[in-house]
Amino acid sequence: MHFVYILRCGDNSLYTGYTTDVEKRLEVHNSGKGAKYTRARLPVKLVYYRRVDSKSIGLKLESRIKKLSKNKKEALVKAFELSK
User: Fold this and answer.
1) In angstroms, rounded to a whole number, what is the distance separating the alpha carbons of residues 76 and 48?
2) Best CA proximity match to 43, nearest among 73, 13, 19, 72
3) What is the mean pLDDT of residues 49-66?
4) Is the N-terminal amide bond of 43 cis, ω within 30° of 0?
5) DSSP output for 35-47
6) Distance between terminal CA atoms of the chain?
7) Are 50 and 4 a contacting pair, CB within 8 Å?
8) When you count CB atoms within 10 A of the terminal residue's CB, does the N or C end of the chain come out lower?
């Protein structure tokens, strides 16, 4: 399985990433062994994820999300929370 995810960091910023195991990746981030960006902004909370069919699709979606403004990322997060 392949996922694109967004984390809300301790400073309220958003971090977007790609993984094959969302729960394990979240644990790695919160242990301080994740991305350099999140290490300085702990704790992090999973606020969005989307399953995709392949690594290639996942990495392309991750790139598109990273280019969005914070307001558009917040809209994605809000829509995700409402869909639960």
Assistant:
1) 8
2) 13
3) 97
4) yes
5) -HHHHTT---EEE
6) 20
7) yes
8) C
Distance between CA atoms of residues 21 and 70, nearest Å: 25
Which residue type, as a one-letter code, is found at position 65?
I
Burial 61-81 (b: 16+ CB within 10 A, else e): bbeebeeeeeeebbebeeeee
Q: With contact defined as beta carbons under 8 Å apart, do 11 and 81 qualify?
A: no
Kind and range of the H or E element at 51? strand 45-52
Cβ burial of 53 (10 Å; 0-12, 13-18, 19+) is: exposed
1-36 confidence digits (pLDDT tens): 999 999 999 999 999 999 999 999 999 999 999 999
Residues 63 and 17: their CA atoms lie apart, in Å, by: 9
User: Tell me, what's the pLDDT at 11?
Assistant: 97
pLDDT of residue 43: 96
